[in-house]
Amino acid sequence: MSGPDLSGRGTRAAVLGAGSWGTTFAKVLADAGCTVSLHARRPELAEAIAESGENAEYLPGVALPGALTATTDAAEALDGADVVVLAVPSQSLRANLLEWTPLLPADATLLSLMKGVELGTTMRMSEVIREVTGAGPDRVAALSGPNLAREIAEEQPAATVIACPDADRAAALQAACLTPYFRPYTNQDLVGCELGGAVKNVIALACGIAEGMGFGDNTRASLITRGLAETTRLGVALGAEPATFAGLAGLGDLVATCSSPLSRNRTFGEKLGRGLSLEEVQATTRQTAEGVKSCRSVLDLARAHGVDVPVTEAVVRVCHEDVPAAQMVKEIMSREAKPE
Ligand SMILES: NC(=O)C1=CN([C@@H]2O[C@H](COP(=O)(O)OP(=O)(O)OC[C@H]3O[C@@H](n4cnc5c(N)ncnc54)[C@H](O)[C@@H]3O)[C@@H](O)[C@H]2O)C=CC1
Ligand SMILES: O=C(CO)COP(=O)(O)O
């Protein structure tokens, strides 16, 4: 086995980022038997979590387990950690990691929960992690799947994928977060799992826009299916396994996110579809809708590899080029007719 044994009790995990998903996944790890330190940026949030056993800002009403503590001190959170979980917005990962890298335990597994592609570099999150920390490929993993935080925090059953090129490391992570309500599968296709997660946010924005315009289930199903086709094309061009996109990190996450009112990306799109401007929608939410920024890096990545991604292109035009949603629909529906 190439990594440390993380299975069962005794695993120490640091979760960096105390938003919706970081807090929820910290609870999953604690429920699976790990000792968990959750790092929050703001002292008042860490204090409130410590005092009330609840992250009232992001997950009101969810009782957090006793094995979970919260701190604003990154060194304290990372001290002796076997697993370091990264759960900040994708575009802030690099800056955060520059600060945290000197504190990382030497052989800790670095697990990304993030679903985005870095603007400017078009790097996936695992690539940013490796570049900033210098960690080898066997130490860096990603978790992705149909995992709307609120549902998992309420212990509604869900499955997910842990992707790592090192199968032993993936299996150890699987054991560290397996609970009666959370079922992780392993996969060695890191590229496919990360891309599935990042691109589905863009497709969910498109589905939200369609919903906001008053369109129904046929439109959503068409966007999901053609969105999956373009995600798969891009993934395969980058070396991913096509089968990954039929799995939990592909179709599974796409269906959940494109259909759920809990999705921040879908909800963001819905407001755009109702006619609000990007700035107006941004003013209504503090939480991260990754697709709003990542649509541009996904498009850059696709162009760099000569891959056609019409749904992503349409989302970029509505979000960043002031193209009205109705015009976007006209453009997408008048593309050249072709075989499926
Ligand atoms: N919420 C969900 O249901 C799920 C989210 N994800 C992914 O997990 C990642 C984190 O998402 P959430 O926890 O939902 O986000 P969130 O918006 O709820 O929380 C983000 C956290 O990062 C912290 N942070 C650190 N540096 C920051 C900076 N420079 N700017 C803004 N915030 C900063 C914030 O204080 C906050 O605690 C995203 O990539 C998202 O796509 C993945 C699966 C499910
Ligand atoms: O990734 C998610 C579900 O798997 C969460 O989606 P949102 O970021 O759109 O809320």
TrEMBL record:
Tell me which Gene Ontology terms the entry assigns under biological process.
carbohydrate metabolic process; glycerol-3-phosphate biosynthetic process; glycerol-3-phosphate catabolic process; glycerophospholipid metabolic process; phospholipid biosynthetic process
Enzymatic class: oxidoreductase
Query: What keywords are annotated for this sequence in UniProt?
Result: Cytoplasm, Lipid biosynthesis, Lipid metabolism, NAD, NADP, Nucleotide-binding, Oxidoreductase, Phospholipid biosynthesis, Phospholipid metabolism
- Can the keyword Acetylation be found in this entry's annotation? no
The gene for this chain is: gpsA
Q: Does the keyword Nucleotide-binding apply?
A: yes
Q: Which residues bind substrate per the record?
A: 115, 264-265
Residues that coordinate or bind NADPH? 20-21, 41-42, 58, 115, 149, 264, 290
From the Swiss-Prot or TrEMBL record, give the protein name: Glycerol-3-phosphate dehydrogenase [NAD(P)+]
Q: Detail which positions bind sn-glycerol 3-phosphate.
A: 115, 145, 200, 253, 263-265
What family does the database annotate? Belongs to the NAD-dependent glycerol-3-phosphate dehydrogenase family.
General function of this protein: Catalyzes the reduction of the glycolytic intermediate dihydroxyacetone phosphate (DHAP) to sn-glycerol 3-phosphate (G3P), the key precursor for phospholipid synthesis.
Record's signal peptide: none
- InterPro entries named in the record: 6-PGluconate_DH-like_C_sf, 6PGD_dom2, G3P_DH_NAD-dep, G3P_DH_NAD-dep_C, G3P_DH_NAD-dep_N, NAD(P)-bd_dom_sf
NCBIfam families per the UniProt record, alphabetical: PRK00094.1-2, PRK00094.1-4
Query: Which EC number(s) does UniProt give?
Result: 1.1.1.94
Segments forming domain Glycerol-3-phosphate dehydrogenase NAD-dependent C-terminal: 189-329
Q: Where is the active site?
A: 200 (proton acceptor)
The subcellular location is: Cytoplasm
Q: In which pathway does it act?
A: Membrane lipid metabolism; glycerophospholipid metabolism
Q: Do you know which Gene3D superfamilies this protein is assigned to?
A: N-(1-d-carboxylethyl)-l-norvaline Dehydrogenase, domain 2, NAD(P)-binding Rossmann-like Domain
Q: Where are the transmembrane segments?
A: none
GO: which molecular function terms?
A: glycerol-3-phosphate dehydrogenase (NAD+) activity; glycerol-3-phosphate dehydrogenase (NADP+) activity; NAD binding
Name any GO cellular component annotation. cytosol
* Catalysed reaction, written as an equation: sn-glycerol 3-phosphate + NAD(+) = dihydroxyacetone phosphate + NADH + H(+); sn-glycerol 3-phosphate + NADP(+) = dihydroxyacetone phosphate + NADPH + H(+)
